[in-house]
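Q: My labmate handed me this sequence with no annotations at all. I'd like to see what the chain might look like in three dimensions before we decide whether it's worth expressing. Could you predict it?
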Amino acid sequence: MDSRPTTRPDRRTFAIISHPDAGKTTLTEKLLLFGGAIHAAGEVKARGQARRARSDWMKIEQQRGISVTSSVMTFERDGLTFNLLDTPGHEDFSEDTYRTLTAVDSAVMVIDAARGIEAQTRKLFEVCRLRSVPIITFVNKVDREGRHPFDLLDEIASDLALDVSPMNWPVGMGGTFEGLYNLETKQLTKPDGTTAPADLSGHDPVGEELALIDAGYAAFDEVAYRHGDLTPVFFGSALKDFGVSELIDALARFAPSPRPQPAEPEAVSPDDAAVTGFIFKVQANMNPMHRDRVAFMRLCSGKFKRGMKLNQVGTGKAIAVHSPILFFAQNRETAEEAWPGDIIGIPNHGTLRVGDTLTDGPPKTITGLPNFAPEILRRIALKDPTKTKQLRKALDDLAEEGIIQVFYPEVGSAWVVGVVGQLQLEVLISRLEVEYKVDAKLEPSPWDTARWLAGDARDIDAFATIHRGALARDRDGALVFMAKDAWELNYVKERNPNLRFSATKERA
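A: Here is what I predict for the chain of 508 residues:
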């Protein structure tokens, strides 16, 4: 094995997080446009052949105008390779979003200049904080009427407990917008795109605002940013192309190259010679004509080459990766090689699942990709009983993707599906109908929540004897306690202190 380091500092793997309607899709499009990955604004939203650039490909996404899956888009600019992971914007998709954020090294947080920090933004930020993901903030829509920039900066600082460092400043807003002033270069970029040096120190009230910025906000500190303690803030308008180029430049200059990944028995460093990666997403039927299934793998270390064999940690199975995919905005390309930070797609037929670690070196398991206890449980019933086999296949597929969880009760035959949010139920029914031609309905479940059971085998057997009717198995065969409500869950936990009732389950 080649023992030379394999680090490639030219990778920037990042996600865009925001509340719905903050402008994430438009900003994604403009990043691809400025990166040369698409050639005309509107291609991301276009129909027909040009829709290959669009991340919102699922039928329910087209109908509702929201992203409910995570997509990968790669573009190159000035010798750097940017891997952009688009995250679901809807609040019901926190689980899929969480897994996507495990695969990035930094994030761009988009905030609407008129609305400030919204609920979903705050939730996604907390996920980033759990993993100390560095964040660049982009305050969008400054060409429209909005809140004062100082109000927005102070809200970020107070609500998110972050130091803020403004990198540019809007001169006016909405109808009075005159351009963006770069606080580092002292240049003003006007709405017509022209840029020239500008002295705004005597420009009232902008001169007073600049003086307050110098006195009241921290200078940009790259170390603090990379630790997740400080966010550089850029103002702009994705729709009008204001500030987008500066945002890409900031990602190039400041965002970290691939970082070490938490793993057992030890962390995986991007410098490690062994090829190691983990599956953070599985997507079925991206091309319904071919019934394809693609596992998205974040490469953490080593130089990957097409055709190499990787061991699936946990099963010990060797998997030959003959047709790896790189995702560009307008097409897919076969990946002849890939480096730490890259995202490759591995076509497979149910072999790979979310949370799997693949390596050609000593066994290591990437950690931090748990299953989450569902917040909504429903029984699923077929309208046509002859479609049982198709339903089982569909539920297995969707469970592999992490869209749903499936539970098989120890007593009774009605399968139970669990989801984190209500919208996932709509996705389930829509995809069953469109992709699998299965007409099913959801019925109330006698249970409200589920917890994975762990403890001594004798204690579990004794518990099962009493509570058999409230037990189920997940698709891995792990035992799950199904509670009718929070009161029952707490009561049972108090009566069984030797057992653990876990709200998360890490893949083995």
